[in-house]
Amino acid sequence: MHQVERAIFDIRRGLPVLLVAGEERVLVQALEGAGDGVPTRLAEQAGTAPALVLSQHRLTLLGGQARSAPARLSLPPGLSGRRLAALAFGAETLPAPERRAWRARLRPAELADRGALALMRRALLIPSALVARVSAARWAAVEASLASGELLAVDAEAAERCLDNTGGMLKRVSEAHIPLADAFDTRFILFREPDGLREHVAVVIGEPETGAAPVPLRLHSACLTGDLFGSLRCDCGEQLRNAVAEIEALGGGVLLYLAQEGRGIGLANKLRAYTLQDGGLDTLDADHTLGFGEDERHYGVAVDMLKALGIRRVQLLTNNPRKVTALADGGIEVVARQALYGSLNDHNRRYLSAKAERAGHLLDEVLRVRR
Ligand SMILES: Nc1nc2c(ncn2[C@@H]2O[C@H](COP(=O)(O)OP(=O)(O)OP(=O)(O)O)[C@@H](O)[C@H]2O)c(=O)[nH]1
Ligand SMILES: [Zn+2]
Known about the structure:
Blueprint: H1 2-12, E1 17-21, E2 24-30, H2 38-46, E3 51-54, H3 56-63, E4 71-74, H4 81-89, H5 96-104, E5 106-108, H6 111-122, E6 128-133, H7 136-148, E7 153-155, H8 156-160, E8 171-177, E9 186-192, E10 199-205, E11 215-221, H9 224-228, H10 236-249, E12 253-258, H11 267-278, H12 283-289, H13 300-308, E13 313-317, H14 321-329, E14 333-338, H15 349-359, H16 364-369
Parallel strand pairs: 1-7, 11-12, 11-13, 13-14
Antiparallel strand pairs: 1-2, 2-6, 3-4, 3-6, 4-5, 8-9, 9-10, 10-12
Helix pairs in contact: 11-12
The structure holds guanosine-5'-triphosphate and zinc ion (ZN).
Residues 223, 225-226, 234, 236 line the site of zinc ion (ZN).
């Protein structure tokens, strides 16, 4: 795991890393910020032509037909950074002749390609990567870069697993009493994921009974724009504050504030998705255009935090059936679900409607009553 964390830092800085999959050695580089010279430099370093790994969602969008797995697209020489970006996350779909041409260049993704995509997601970058197999002729030079520490080698399987839940290895780091306007007796407990990349906070309101009665619980995914600035594009800020007040009114409980900005795609990508929405896409299609699924969140850390707090039975404040299922799958008994709304406005109506109509969120009441 250690190498994976270090690789993520290199990737975020725009440096290549080497993925090792059996006999195969593959140089991998993020696409974000890859200027015109990057594919050529990567080709020189590897001794082979680079390819672009694309997620299944991106391929579906580009090809106009459902794809069930990621694939590798071999690139013609001299492709500009702009064309690369357009292929990986541009808003326009390709014209039919171009589509046919690149379909012929597609190959199923192999272990190193899948590892590359997982690293990009974990690094909160666009889920697409430049990859180039290292030729025998270039191996000595690559090995010298590894020896000097200039280049980092990572096991491709470990890279592929980097999104998996670490299962119970979450570290409880620190805590403090933080009186809130709507809940005076509140403690913030910070948990850190074992690779040190993400931190999540359990906000414990009052002294929740962890015995027989279900504990009122809110799982809240971070939303900088809504939670902190009161953005009108979503309902997060109001839901956050309503959840605290509601848990207090219920006699205490827990709010897990999860580092899952933008449904897990990160703030940079959420801002890109907002711009695509301004161009006409809805919240789900915008994420697909960037190569993401409709919801990239995993709730394993939430389950681990609850277990660390001794909570096994909950009354969940949510409109999202996925959260109910995810907790149940993790062994937490969801005794009841309670709706939790923000208010509807002209800026978030489309977002909330898409969540209800396309992602099964239970928002009928808010959309009907307050339309
Ligand atoms: N990708 C993306 N994320 C968004 C968008 N609008 C809001 N978000 C994110 O969506 C998440 C909303 O989280 P939550 O309030 O926990 O959850 P929810 O899935 O709506 O479910 P409940 O509120 O529990 O019913 C936050 O991480 C926001 O940052 C958007 O247009 N695109
Ligand atoms: Zn929000």
